[in-house]
Amino acid sequence: MADTPYDTLAEVYDWLVWEGLLTPQGSAAAFGDVLDELEPGSRILDCAAGTGHLAVGLALRGFEVVATDASDAMVQRTRRLAAEHGADLRAVTSTWEQLDDAGWSGTFDAVFCVGNSLTHAAGSEARRAALRAMAGVLRADGLLAVTSRNWERIRERGSSLNVGDQLVERDGRRGLVIYVWTLADGWEQRHELDVAVALIGDDGAVTTRGERLSFWPFRHETLREDLLAAGLQAAASTYEPDVTAYLVTARRVA
Predict the structure, then answer these.
(1) What does the mean pLDDT of the chain come to?
(2) Residue 197: how many other CB atoms lie within 10 Å
(3) Class of the 152-215 domain?
(4) pLDDT of 148-169, one tens digit each?
(5) What residues have CB less than 8 Å from 117, skipping those under 6 apart?
(6) What are phi and psi of 200, to 5 degrees?
(7) What whole-number distance in Å separates Cα of residue 249 and Cα of residue 164?
(8) For residue 189, how many C-alpha atoms fall within 13 Å in the half-sphere facing its CB?
(9) pTM of the predicted model as reported, rounded to 2 decimal places
(10) Would you list the domain boundaries of the chain?
(11) Which of 32, 104, 228, 237 could form a disulfide with 137 if both were Cys (CB 3.0 to 4.6 A apart)?
């Protein structure tokens, strides 16, 4: 198991991402409606930035960007991607808990926490603490954007093994994605997700990279309550009972 979650998966993370989000431009375009609410040159924090496609895409659009992630391997990938595209941004290894100590209090116009990151906060109190930390670096009336899986649907499905129905190709390499969901009885209990990518070489040899990730799911109504408890007022949501994932935006209460 990796010392920090996603350190091992960083190498194969692109196989887990929808192809349309695998360029900085495509990743930023997916949040066009959110970006339309921001002034040119706004200062943005992308926390839990992953491999950096969104952060680099935001920087290429002229925003002042800081990218953070708890995984140093992910931060290194973000820095490489920024260098490849000539994007000017700062990438820092940081957890949500460390945001309070970074000297960023009240300095960002917007914060992004996307890609199901929030579910890794260990229960409701940790989730609210993470949201409070994000709210703390926002300016008054600053904008938060959070994405999440539809955990109601996943819990209805129950524990399961999901093997990709076709190979996924990234940069000329083929891989098969495998998920094993182990769901607890109660919402507030630790759940586990085993993620593996089996990379298939031209000679048929298979190399596997994977991790076991812990997560604590939440209902969409619970997220709204958590935002309010953290000093954030929900503004909009794309949640519907039948969607796979959804986006919620909120403003810091002045």
Answers:
(1) 96
(2) 23
(3) mainly beta
(4) 999 999 999 999 999 999 999 9
(5) 47, 48, 50
(6) -110, 115
(7) 31
(8) 8
(9) 0.94
(10) 9-151+218-252, 152-215
(11) 104
